[in-house]
Amino acid sequence: MEMNGQPWSSFHYYTKWSDGKRGSIEGTAYKVDPSSDEAKLKVKFYVPPFLPIIPVTCDYWVLYIDEDYQVALVGQPSRNYLWILSRESHIDDEIFNELVERAKSEGYDMS
């Protein structure tokens, strides 16, 4: 996995909550083992975003990316947290259900 041709990548994450509120945060991701093909990342966020002096680092595993890079399944190794990511604001129900099944097969509790 290459991230902009470098061992790290900066990103800006946007979200829309179910109540309609929006949020965003900036971070930096880098591979845990640069020599590995596994997509196991350390992600560093600065909290709160307006005062970027307190870094929070988390483990993120990229479990699945579709061939067109439109949706992804990302989780933490503890299997306590999982994200279904999409470039679009809406995911087709069939694709969503497929991602849920993939998450279950990886040991995530989707109840």
From TrEMBL:
Which terms under GO biological process does the entry name? lipid metabolic process; response to reactive oxygen species
Q: According to the lineage, what is the superkingdom?
A: Eukaryota
Q: Which GO terms describe its cellular component?
A: cytoplasm
Occurrences of domain Lipocalin/cytosolic fatty-acid binding (ranges): 16-110
Task: Report the InterPro entries cross-referenced here.
Answer: Calycin (IPR012674), Lipocalin_Blc-like_dom (IPR047202), Lipocln_cytosolic_FA-bd_dom (IPR000566)
Name of the protein described by the UniProt record: Lipocalin/cytosolic fatty-acid binding domain-containing protein
Q: Which organism's genome codes for this protein?
A: Cannabis sativa (Hemp)
The organism's taxonomic lineage, starting at the top: Eukaryota, Viridiplantae, Streptophyta, Embryophyta, Tracheophyta
